[in-house]
Give the backbone structure.
Amino acid sequence: MAIDPTLARELKASGVHVTSLEQLVNWGRSSSLWPLQFGLACCAIEMISATMAKYDMARFGAEVFRPSPRQADLMIVAGTVTKKMAPQVVRLYNQMAEPKYVIAMGACAISGGPFKEGYNVLKGIDRFIPVDVVIPGCPPRPEALLDGLIALQEKIRGEKLTGSARARHADPDAPAEMPIPECGAHDIVPVANRGIWNPPVIEREEGGAE
Amino acid sequence: MISDPPIFNSSPVLEGTDEDQLLRVSLGPQHPSTHGVFRMNVELDGETVVKLKPVFGYLHRNHEKIAETTGYLGSMPYTDRLDYICPLSNNWAYALSVEKLAGIEVPERAQHMRVILAELTRLVNHTAFMGFILADMGAWGSALMYAFREREKILDLFEDLTGARMMANFMRFGGCRNDFPDGWDARLRTLIDHYPHFLDEMEEFLLGNEILLARTRDVGALPKESLINGGVTGPMLRAAGVNHDLRKADPYGIYDRFSFRIPLGEVGDCYDRIMIRFLEMRESLGILKQAAAALPGGDFVNPKIKIRNFKPPVGESYARVEGPKGELGFYLVSDGGPNPYRYRVRPPSFINLTLLEDMCLGLDLADVVIILGSIDIVLGEVDR
């Protein structure tokens, strides 16, 4: 529920800040994201660059990289996810505490990227875990990662904690854990989590293009 | 000759340990010390490593198979992603192999450009190595900050030249993709002049450091015979005192024209491996200085080279370069078609990694992390 902006302005002039609990919680969450220190491939180097001297992700409140998923709330999938690695990525996601967010960094994490033709490459991590922000690039520049982080922060600030349009982590019926795929005889089993991954079906009219 | 060295540990567990009391630990694939998605299954007797089995393949992304279905030039961007800290060395090794296969001449200017870029890449790699190895020792953050500050300066040069910070895709068969932009050589010279300051600073911080000495002295040394028989190359091998550098032993490009020395270690422990890289960076700066001064005019790529419908004659070739991590080679078999019949990479990281268990047995678990760091692996190259 929004606060009357005129009233809020008047109160602010006399030194009183008025906000809703939702805004306060979201502000707190978005300003101190703790990413999981988890690099997969080339993009991980750019992820490290983004936290280091020149780009300094600490300016945006997300520099506390935690090696343990139990302490992290942001997973940056930085690099190619192979079919051997996919179960581990999902397991790490399950081990993170709610609320948790996922950034798919780079073409490989989004869709398999240049390695899409590979027999061992997963064609996008969004087949198994819900992705909040995707950052294209091969690898994306550190600025692009910072931009993605800011986009995620904006998304968190706009989250609803109650009502029908509430965020996933505030919904008791939403699954807390994603099913972990297994390495089957020929492919990963199942090939995708149909509960979260529903690619658009291209509908073509009879008779082909005009 | 070399007689029966202990390459691979034959007994599964060190003598004198009680097998029922062993603690089995799986390090990785998600672990802050494993430099990517490498995994080690370690068996510990107390704190002592008695068995170590690496598990590979978490980043196997079918580089070789994809290269066999792509045209020759189409594999060039994929080579960037092998050892993603130093893409330009990979470019050069692949270009050399194709040039050998098809008999392509490389103009003088392009040869100089390649030497400059390869040595800059060596600087990038060794600088990043300094940061990572110190992070492995527990100095998380500060050392890496210093290292990446310098690395960014070289990446800026790469970006102006190739358009990309990391994935250069710059070498072409018979030369390079484009010429140095205006003012690039001047910026290169400024960088060469300033870089020794960083090395001095880093050396001052590190080399007499009590913690660094305690953690790296006499850790992970192996006899040189084992290293040679294990196929280990690069700074790992030279740290043990074996004078083998392809720039001298099998000169490629125009390395025979420059005067530089090959730094050698004595013991081959982790401390020597760190020192070697410092000294190599100083030699690289010397080569850079000579190459920048001797840079001739002319073509940056052989004008006769055909880009479209490139089909080398039937045959096979193996070309290798002294990459920052060791001997990086590409083996190609051509059947006369537009894509290679067989494409094989000889990755230095992977082969250097084969002796990991022998280096680690009998040491503490904390030492394993430093030994792994001192091998300087990149998983893109190990698993391909």
Remarks:
- The first helix of chain B runs from residue 63 to 68.
- Residues 227 and 237 of chain B are 7 Å apart (CA to CA).
- Chain B has two domains: 13-55, 63-383.
- Chain B touches chain A at residues 29-32, 36-37, 57-63, 65-66, 69, 77-78, 81, 84-85, 128, 144-146, 148-149, 151-152, 165-167, 379-380 (CB under 8 Å).
